[in-house]
Amino acid sequence: MSMLPKVEIFAGLSEEEQAALENSCVTRNYPRNTVVINENDFADSLYVIESGRVKVYCSDKNGKEYIMNTLGPGDYFGELALLDDDRRSASVRTLEKSTFTIMFKDEFHAIMERHPNIATTLIRNLTRRVRKLTENVKSLALQDVYGRVTKVLMTLAEPRGDKLYIEERLTQQDIADRVGASR
User: Fold this and answer.
1) Pair 127, 149 in one domain
2) 170 and 99, same domain (yes or no)
3) Domain carrying residue 74
4) 51 and 119 belong to one structural domain
5) Which of 17, 69, 166, 177 could form a disulfide with 56 if both were Cys (CB 3.0 to 4.6 A apart)?
6) Contact call for residues 8 and 125 (beta carbons, < 8 A)
7) Going residue by residue through the chain (183 aa), what tens digit of pLDDT does each one get?
8) pLDDT tens digits, residue range 108-155?
9) 168 belongs to a structural domain
10) Same domain, yes or no, for 78 and 41?
11) Beta partners for 102?
């Protein structure tokens, strides 16, 4: 069973519509540490993560990475490709063996025409991501490295009982890449 029905932007579709959507998609598997999409590549598809985890990042001309997000099962990326004709705005690399359901722009537009609620939900999700990126920019511009590290760790932390827990295993380099610092 595909993860598509659990993805927020497709949650309002009937079973028949979800089946039609799934039939228009392809599934691909990628090993760990594989670049799925490259920043500035031609963009024509949305990826839904069925299993595994990825990091979304940008690189400078020297190859230094800035990690924008990490995503897991049920998350999606590449949605900007469905809305404009621009190139990819970030790169995505697998952090572990991953499986994706891939939807192409033409199929997405056909479904969105029949179900405008998908567009509304997509806009809401994009707005959340813009707000998160705005917070990241403010953090980079206005906080020192210690403040940025604290913010990243607190954002990743989940309360469990009377303690905070970070599920993702982070190296010092991972943290540095998230806060725009060097190790």
Assistant:
1) no
2) no
3) 4-142
4) yes
5) 69
6) yes
7) 677 778 877 776 777 777 777 888 999 999 999 999 999 999 899 999 999 999 999 988 888 888 888 999 999 999 888 888 888 999 999 999 999 999 998 888 888 788 777 777 778 888 887 888 888 778 777 788 888 888 888 888 888 888 888 888 888 888 887 787 777
8) 888 878 877 777 777 888 888 788 888 877 877 778 888 888 888 888
9) yes
10) yes
11) 26, 47
Together in a domain, 18 and 81: yes
Do both 32 and 105 map to the same domain? yes
Q: Considering the domain boundaries, does residue 183 fall inside one?
A: no
Question: 141 to each of 33, 60, 146, 181, how far by Cα in Å?
Answer: 30, 17, 13, 12
What's the Rg (C-alpha) of the chain? 17
> What phi and psi, each to the nearest 5 degrees, are found at residue 147?
-65, -40
Report the SS3 class of residue 45: strand
Joined tokens for residue 125: 């999700």
User: What is the per-residue burial (b if ≥16 Cβ within 10 Å, else e) of 160-173?
Assistant: eeeeeeeeeebeee
Q: In the chain, how many domains are there?
A: 2
Using the structure block, give the residue that is written with the tokens 């760790």: 153
Q: Are residue 163 and residue 109 in the same domain, yes or no?
A: no
Beta bridge partners of residue 175, listed in sequence order:
none
Cβ-based burial of 91 (10 A; exposed 0-12, middle 13-18, buried ≥19): buried
Asked if residues 28 and 54 have their Cβ atoms less than 8 Å apart, the reply is no
